[in-house]
Design brief:
α8 links the parallel β8 and β9. With 291 residues, this protein is an alpha/beta fold. It is built from 12 helices and 12 strands. The strands form 2 sheets. An 8-stranded mixed barrel has the order 3-4-6-7-8-9-10-11, surrounded by 4 helices. A two-stranded antiparallel ribbon has the order 1-2. The radius of gyration is 22 Å and the shape is globular. Bound molecules: ligand C2E and magnesium ion (MG) (3 copies). The site of one magnesium ion (MG) has 4 residues, from loops. This is EAL domain-containing protein.
């Protein structure tokens, strides 16, 4: 397949295609080996309730510690894992590791919901709900210990099948979240129909809330839309205390971001929770005393 058909019908050899397919073949081999070689790491990022300042959840984010390339971030291999179907294996690995984390948290008496990202391929995987149920039984966990995050685009790829998978998962008691809300092609009709519990505002709208009035308007409207639909609203990409207070004053339910914590290795979450202190409420200047 290094051959390319020219406009005039002639077949030419294209070495760049050869190189690219060679590279992707070796990446796929490396990904397959990475599970056995124990190169994936489960990182988590805490989700904080604005009103109480408590850690109510944690999002599972996978990292690949490559022997030569070092830390490889998900953006560099998740899209490829989706194209090749490897993502199904990876999702099972993430679910397994997340279940282990849930067990540790439960043992410590902490109720922290673990959020796991699903991709389009996972939604097309008819076995996923059954495999998930088996996992819960084996680990003696309640489905309500988990939240599954799906992007609008993953749903809109095949809305009918996505809806079937999501309905089966939801019937088991697992919570569902719409991730990166506002960035994909979405249909409000589907949002209304799907059994979702949470709406996650994409970080691109949150990062610059301090200086961008347009972003503030989008975030405020999205919070209202979510609440009107009966959903919990979470903001990702909270990078400063100022944005924390802005979101809190807009009645956003939960926040996640570098200001509170970057993603950390899963085994450090308990320690992080012990050290976490929510920012003090901002005290408004006292009104001038009437004379
Ligand atoms: P996502 O699900 O939207 O995850 C949130 C991303 O935003 C994470 O990037 C997180 O580190 C980053 N983030 C959180 N707070 C801040 C902040 O305050 N500032 C900035 N600049 N970034 C922040 P990460 O870990 O690199 O993951 C990127 C994407 O890769 C995820 O986006 C998700 O779509 C995908 N991904 C990660 N792990 C998995 C996985 O296990 N399975 C699947 N299917 N996808 C995954
Ligand atoms: Mg996510
Ligand atoms: Mg997101
Ligand atoms: Mg994202």
């Amino acid at each position: 397949y290094a051959a390319k058909l020219r406009n005039d019908g002639a077949v030419v050899y294209d070495s760049s295609i050869d190189k690219a397919s060679e590279q992707s073949l070796s990446l796929l081999t490396e990904l397959r080996n990475a599970i056995e070689r124990n190169e994936f790491r489960l990182f988590v990022q805490p989700k904080i309730h604005f009103d109480t300042g408590e850690v109510v959840g944690a999002e599972a984010l996978v990292r690949w510690v490559h022997p030569e390339r070092g830390n490889v971030f998900p953006d560099q291999f998740i899209p490829f894992a989706e194209q090749t179907g490897f993502i199904r294996k990876l999702t099972r690995w993430v679910l397994e590791q997340s279940a282990a984390l849930c067990q540790d948290l439960e043992a410590a008496g902490l109720h922290v919901k673990v959020s796991v990202n699903l991709s389009t391929r996972d939604l097309m995987d008819q076995d996923l709900p059954t495999k998930f149920r088996e996992l819960l039984e084996r680990r003696r966990l309640s489905a309500s210990s988990f939240c599954l995050e799906i992007t609008e685009s993953a749903i809109m790829d095949d809305p009918v099948r996505a809806e079937q998978t999501l309905a089966r998962l939801h019937a088991m008691g697992v919570e569902l979240s719409i991730d990166d809300f506002g960035t994909g092609y979405s249909s409000l009709a589907y949002l209304k129909r799907l059994p979702v519990n949470e709406l996650k505002i994409d970080k691109s709208f949150v990062l610059n809330m301090e200086s961008d009035a347009g972003d503030v308007m989008i975030v405020r409207s999205t919070i209202q839309l979510g609440h009107n639909l009966g959903l919990r609203v979470v903001a990702e990409g909270v990078e400063s205390e100022a944005v924390w207070h802005q979101l809190k004053s807009m009645n956003c339910d939960q926040g996640q971001g570098y200001y509170m914590s970057r993603p950390i290795p899963a085994d450090q979450l308990l320690l992080w929770m012990q050290q976490w202190r929510a920012p003090e409420p901002v005290s408004l200047p006292a009104p001038a005393a009437a004379s």
